[in-house]
Amino acid sequence: xxxxxxxxxxxxxxxxxxxxxxxxxxxxxxxxxxxxxxxxxxxxxxxxxxxxxxxxxxxxxxxxxxxxxxxxxxxxxxxxxxxxxxxxxxxxxxxxxxxxxxxxxxxxxxxxxxxxxxxxxxxxxxxxxxxxxxxxxxxxxxxxxxxxxxxxxxxxxxxxxxxxxxxxxxxxxxxxxxxxxxxxxxxxxxxxxxxxxxxxxxxxxxxxxxxxxxxxxxxxxxxxxxxxxxxxxxxxxxxxxxxxxxxxxxxxxxxxxxxxxxxxxxxxxxxxxxxxxxxxxxxxxxxxxxxxxxxxxxxxxxxxxx
Length: 306
Ligand SMILES: NC(=O)c1ccc[n+]([C@@H]2O[C@H](COP(=O)([O-])OP(=O)(O)OC[C@H]3O[C@@H](n4cnc5c(N)ncnc54)[C@H](OP(=O)(O)O)[C@@H]3O)[C@@H](O)[C@H]2O)c1
Fold this sequence. Notes:
Elements: E1 2-6, H1 11-20, E2 25-29, H2 39-49, E3 53-56, H3 70-91, E4 94-100, H4 123-138, E5 141-147, E6 150-151, H5 158-168, E7 173-175, E8 179-180, E9 183-184, H6 185-205, H7 209-216, E10 218-221, E11 228-229, H8 230-243, E12 256-258, H9 278-284, H10 291-302
Parallel strand pairs: 1-2, 1-3, 3-4, 4-5, 5-10, 6-9, 7-12
Antiparallel strand pairs: 8-11
The structure holds NADP nicotinamide-adenine-dinucleotide phosphate.
């Protein structure tokens, strides 16, 4: 089994290096080894390795900057993804790709299902949706995992920003009218590996491997259980951090709740980013823990007491 991993230095990519390694020969590529904006070189790389599985964790993720860099966002999140899908179809490889809650407009009351209508409100969301559509249109065997509010010990994310700001500032204002599920890169990587193992094992046992792989192909919401606002999330991080001995100039109850309108940003964010992951749980028999489980783990790992 040969696996080609792209975006190996990102939050999710870094964790995939660990979780995919036991599945077979893993070729882990960072941007230097595989730049998704260089389509010819990318195509040649896939042709050279002819992997059984391509896992694409690379993406243009600068959500606000994307409003200015429209072409670049579409090149990496859509065009390059379409090329990977086409290559996967040619080589009969399985393609794993990640997408986002930003494909939704956030107007729904209740958790989003995979079957709900998409309506992205930002360039980033539109470029990620185009990537999803190109994969589906290619006819390759694929898994698209839509996730949200990703965090990890490696990389920049909201939880780490809150830790830094709590140590520096006496006041903190955080948006309280956007809801979602903070999801750990570790969880995403572990679930990816589990799903691949299930599919590959069943394919090897089955008389009809292609049909079986095609049965599993599609979009799955991959998020931790539960939901929270950014404001509640910030309070949780600071409370836990204080209990672990982090320096904090601010108490959790002193974090001020503000509205999205009070904190305007170039790209629009969905007010409701909550996604229902029961299709994933049901199909692959996977348990998705509460978001707090991995946030606790992150803080313990970063803790001065650790
Ligand atoms: N972060 C979130 O909150 C979030 C939420 C929902 C969905 N997602 C999706 O989840 C996936 C993983 O996200 P993440 O949080 O791991 O993102 P990340 O930490 O920003 O990592 C993205 C990686 O992509 C690489 N990259 C960017 N442009 C590239 C290019 N032209 N060629 C090759 N590599 C390139 C970056 O390389 P460098 O290290 O060189 O910059 C980085 O390592 C993405 O598909 C993202 O859209 C993320």
